[in-house]
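Lab notebook: predicted structure, single chain.

Context: the supervisor wants predicted structures on file for every construct in the current expression panel, including those that have not yet been purified. This is the next one on the list. No modifications to the sequence; it matches the entry in the shared construct table.
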Amino acid sequence: MDRSVLNHDTSRQAEDLQVELWRRMSQLSKIQTVSALSRSVLQLSLTGIRQRFPEATDRECKIRLARLTLGPELANRAYPESSKLTGY
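Prediction complete. Output recorded below exactly as produced.
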């Protein structure tokens, strides 16, 4: 039987167990997990920006993060100085 594969490097048994554990989670636990993962992704993105632009101020890094997550057009509307930056 064909099915969607979440991870090509994970056995079907392990994947089935993971899906079952997700199903058993309370709504609050799911929200907390997704929120924590989202914060981790933003932190990793910010770390990457700081590595690419070591001279950047904290504000510039946050603006670059906005450009990365919102796109240049929306970031420029939120942070007009964003239009002076190139790259992420």
